[in-house]
Write a structure and sequence with these properties.
- The protein is an alpha/beta fold.
- It is built from eight helices and seven strands.
- It has a single domain, classed as NAD(P)-binding Rossmann-like Domain (Rossmann fold, 3-Layer(aba) Sandwich).
- The chain is 45% helix and 15% strand.
- A seven-stranded parallel β-sheet has the order 3-2-1-4-5-6-7, with helices on both faces.
Length: 240
């Protein structure tokens, strides 16, 4: 069985990605921290179907914990075929109020964890012969919105990491990203705000976490696709 690693696998987009990959035939390491209980439920469901699924409760804001996670995965798996960096912090705050601690945590989880976890898993990724790393970015990496400066910066850095690793990790490791739009609205966004934002989406509707999961499966199957930053946003990226 091919092996997939999914971070942030216990809720929302990450949970949908984890389920889709398990349904598609992967064994998996599901990384979840605060949402570990739902990841464990998913793992139990697929273990009952004969699949090898491990749940890791790592705090990705802790660099040492990220390194330890990579070491445990290397011990368990000589090959890693698909690495999905989905875990991320989303936080709304006016620029003038963002503290150094908020900024540091945002960059640690959204950028540094993908950087160093991929670095720590290079050996099993290369051993797979045709591995894929996927970064889950955001349309705000290119189209920032007010009150999210530290978030948009982190996703822009992750998009650049996609390009940098595409250049460096071939020919045995492909690197792509998916950039979701409105597939899972943050809690607390009222109906008026949601409707206003959807007016800028040509499809005029919200997507679903599984739309991101299906995009990742497409990238996995499209073996000559490399370095692609794939919007999953209903066409939002073409609207001024």
């Amino acid at each position: 069985m091919p092996v997939a690693i999914v971070t942030g696998a216990g809720q929302r987009v990450g949970l949908a990605v984890a389920r889709a990959l398990l349904e598609d035939g992967f064994d998996a390491v599901l990384c979840a921290h605060r949402s570990r209980a739902s990841a464990e439920e998913l793992a139990a469901e697929f273990r009952a179907r004969g699949r090898a699924v491990v749940v890791e409760g790592t705090d990705l804001a802790d660099g040492g914990a990220v390194d330890a996670l990579a070491a445990r995965i290397r011990e368990q798996h000589q090959q890693v075929h698909l690495l999905v960096h989905n875990a991320g912090v989303f936080e709304e705050a006016p620029f003038g109020t963002i503290t150094r601690a908020q900024y540091a945590r945002m960059q640690a989880i959204n950028v540094e964890a993908p950087f160093f976890l991929t670095q720590g898993l290079l050996a099993p990724l290369r051993a797979a012969g045709d591995a894929l790393v996927v970064h889950v970015t955001d349309i705000t990496a290119d189209r920032p919105i007010s009150r999210h400066a530290h978030y948009s910066m982190s996703k822009a850095a992750l998009a650049m990491l996609t390009r940098a690793l595409t250049v460096e990790l071939g020919p045995t490791v492909r690197v792509c990203s998916v950039a979701p739009g409105y597939v899972a609205f943050p809690e607390g966004w009222n109906e008026e705000r949601r409707e206003r934002l959807l007016q800028r989406v040509p499809l005029r509707r919200v997507g679903a976490p599984d739309d991101v999961a299906q995009a990742i499966l497409f990238l996995w199957r499209a073996k000559y696709v490399n370095g692609l930053e794939l919007p999953v946003d209903g066409g939002r990226q073409v609207v001024l």
